[in-house]
Amino acid sequence: xxxxxxxxxxxxxxxxxxxxxxxxxxxxxxxxxxxxxxxxxxxxxxxxxxxxxxxxxxxxxxxxxxxxxxxxxxxxxxxxxxxxxxxxxxxxxxxxxxxxxxxxxxxxxxxxxxxxxxxxxxxxxxxxxxxxxxxxxxxxxxxxxxxxxxxxxxxxxxxxxxxxxxxxxxxxxxxxxxxxxxxxxxxxxxxxxxxxxxxxxxxxxxxxxxxxxxxxxxxxxxxxxxxxxxxxxxxxxxxxxxxxxxxxxxxxxxxxxxxxxxxxxxxxxxxxxxxxxxxxxxxxxxxxxxxxxxxxxxxxxxxxxxxxxxxxxxxxxxxxxxxxxxxxxxxxxxxxxxxxxxxxxxxxxxxxxxxxxxxxxxxxxxxxxxxxxxxxxxxxxxxxxxxxxxxxxxxxxxxxxxxxxxxxxxxxxxxxxxxxxxxxxxxxxxxxxxxxxxxxxxxxxxxxxxxxxxxxxxxxxxxxxxxxxxxxxxxxxxx
Length: 479
Description:
Shape: flat
Strand content: 35-45%
Number of strands: 23
Number of domains: 3
């Protein structure tokens, strides 16, 4: 039915492309950009060129992304537009409906397409509640608070006209139904089936297993810059949707696994570049770890191979604790001094230590100020900083922070008349606290060096995904 799904920016830059038919080539994306996006005369939501048909809508976000499907057969246009509207709603609740966020989290869009469409391009599920339950990550917005196309159509559909089809007759009149009431029977029937169903006749069309290594780094730095405390608490989450009970095997790059694998284990043919990272290390020491009950402990004790038969759905495959040879993502250098007028003078420098091709998001630095502060005069080289009286702090935020970048902040507090030098000396000076999230970066250097899925059927195929997420736990700097 659907041969390809394309997502363009407002300017016509291709961000996401997924082909479902071998008869289509990626050059088909250039045809739509030239014939529709760059052509001001064509604004129809459907365009047919020869045997190729393009269906398109604009996203409900302010970036106005182009959501496009490509087909080469006599397809159901109503079902395709229903899919596009629901795809827009799903992208909205996952926060990837802007050009910047979609480029950073494009894997979420591909996972949405895997859930909503079958491998042959037929819409499988368009119910948002069902879609979110099958995803490996949680949505950033609730279904009620999200700005969805269906919410707009429910309030405005009484102004639209449509053609009501009754049997073989077409009667002009009535109102245009919203996408939620116009779901074809095929989609309604398919959306009621869940991959976790116990029905033996249910077959998952695409075998898929997703591993996420999520690490939270905890750091405490003293006034002189020495590290008082540093450790990483990590978890390997596994989300499996596969037919049968195939056996999966992963190996890590910690010291003991590397030594045993070099001597006893013959690595199978697996593309290594899928899991490579710039900051991976062979000096990783696992101080403490815990496995899910599906893991074979005998195999791990013998060859340091994590062998498991994952149940369907999401589980915590492994938890671990590492405190040596950590990769610190940020270095913060604060210089804070008292002035003769009772104000505090801040000079803070933030430097990212991860590779340039990576970027951190949701970066925020909380800078406490002494009690009795009325306002702050702030100057920053990048980002946005404001004084928050409720928290007695300045909050310095960045939408995106690139690797190997340095930024500076200078600020002076405006105190009340009651603030004295004695008040400032008695102030406890709470530490600076940093919050961030970095994709495809490991604070501990731990990585999956080998990932295999085996089944009795040699033709068994499975899509394997590995994602690394580094987050801030308690990341504090004293001054």
